[in-house]
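Q: Hi! First time asking for a complex rather than a single chain. Here are the components, and I think there are two in total. Is that enough to go on?
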Amino acid sequence: MTFKQHQDASGFTLPFEAITAAHDRIRERIIETPLLESAALNALVGARVLVKAESLQKTGSFKFRGACNRALQLAPHERSGGIVAWSSGNHALAISAVCAELGVPATILMPLDAPRAKVDGAKSYGAEVRLYDRQTEDREALGREIADRTNAVIVPPYDDPEIMAGQGTVGLELLAQAREAGLKPDAVLASASGGGLIAGVATAVRTTLPDAQVFAVEPEGFDDHARSLAAGARVRNEPGAQSICDSLHVPTPGELTFSVNHRLLTGGLTVSDTEVRRAMRVAFETLKLVAEPGGAAPLAALLAGKLDVSGKTVVTVLSGGNVDADMFQSAFS
Amino acid sequence: MTFKQHQDASGFTLPFEAITAAHDRIRERIIETPLLESAALNALVGARVLVKAESLQKTGSFKFRGACNRALQLAPHERSGGIVAWSSGNHALAISAVCAELGVPATILMPLDAPRAKVDGAKSYGAEVRLYDRQTEDREALGREIADRTNAVIVPPYDDPEIMAGQGTVGLELLAQAREAGLKPDAVLASASGGGLIAGVATAVRTTLPDAQVFAVEPEGFDDHARSLAAGARVRNEPGAQSICDSLHVPTPGELTFSVNHRLLTGGLTVSDTEVRRAMRVAFETLKLVAEPGGAAPLAALLAGKLDVSGKTVVTVLSGGNVDADMFQSAFS
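A: Yes, that's all I need. Here is the structure of the assembled complex.
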């Protein structure tokens, strides 16, 4: 697949065929996560709620799909140098695991204050983890320096067409699973950090069902997609915001992702930490799923009535389950 | 399907075709639960561990399969009378939900001290719940009296060929999923209460892979299958035993189930509450699954090294996720 048509990021669109090609490429290596439904959850929301349980994906989040799609396209001469990536979380785990599967070296830049479990997780797959100081070091410059020295390929977490195409396979799968159940989604919700997941999902959904609505969900204080969509241009979050949704702490939408998202998304929804904790509890009780805060945000929006879905069929992507026990238990206190 | 060949329970075998027929009957109504694998879990056990996540089934346990298979075979004249069942847990939820789907009345006998969440769960599906006193009332006599009066069919939790056949579809699915992943299980583990799940699974597995080993897993104090298999005849548990595995508190194996199990099972394994709590924690951390204690017992046996599976491929059925928040959190303390 070539994406060279557009020189200018603002003209970028993700071809639907890039997603179907990604699916053909990765399907043997990913888990087809189930589309779950609970009568009790339906009653709470007043709609048919289908939950795409992507927390059950390898490495505990959808990020494995994009990482896998990108890594499988390394040229033969690129494989010995491997991949460099920076992330404090799910992208790090996904790149580490994919590289381990493919026998390719991985170097991950993680902040000194990254959760111990995530650092250990990346190391457990055999990745080389380089810790850096958020205050004094520039991770992108460090990453480029390492890539130049080791002849490695930099794989960004979202602003990359093949990453978006890989994440878009979540959309392909949920559409096929809904169709098999005889259902046609009226709306689809997924959380947005850099916007790669929602860009891929929106492309799959709106190509197949042009009338379906697609919403990005974000925590309060990190509502850059909601405000950027309303403004028609990328805006930044104010510094200093706090949220338990650690996987959604990105200052502004990606360039390529926003080019896709501003055309395809219906809008953005915003949720509080309290609403997210309730959604984590409801996912435990009604679906028997472990949701990380960022993964529970779309369900939180539904439960909090941020969208009128009364009597409709709505799909919510539960995108990750990488949460430590203390944070998980905070949903019950 | 007719099961009339054997007048004597001890001669009963479950035909493989009863399981494939059950699968054809129920497949549109059940969730094909995923077969999950985690690199971290594999490292902990030292084997390839495939986890059949039946906690994600409708109503949170495998019981929905058997209930569905039985209820779909009600004769037209039986539908108005509906179903009577007794259970303090997962069978109650499954019968209630299936009857709600099929528009058939359900009456569930539950003990006065049943968990509130399970009583409320059964009621939420529209079942009529009749509470009884464990000390002074005989639930089977009560159930028969209600069935006679209302013209209802009694559906037992395990000692019924169609219930066993329904539970056996767990085995059919896991075999197909393993085959699709290019894997051949050396051993399969599932928990045993009355023995319906393990009887169905063993029939599916040993018919397809005669050399595979199949083990029943039970909590300490409720190891009636392990001891009955060793003795070659059904024995009872000593009264007064305690275990956090509330779904596995049955005094002795079923008659029909034991007739199947004593021919097909390799043996029984026993786990402590501490080992079960560790398995619940590991399922949370590595698989992002909510496991109830009884559902985590087979994983507990693997993690505690109760079986030498070094370098082998082993499937463990995680059979339910109906656990309240307090009990779940006890796995982390």
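A: The interface with chain B takes residues 31-34, 36-37, 39-40, 43, 53, 55-56, 58, 60, 97, 100, 121, 124-125, 281, 284-285, 287-290, 321-322, 325, 328-329, 332 of chain A (CB under 8 Å). Let me know if you'd like any chain examined more closely.
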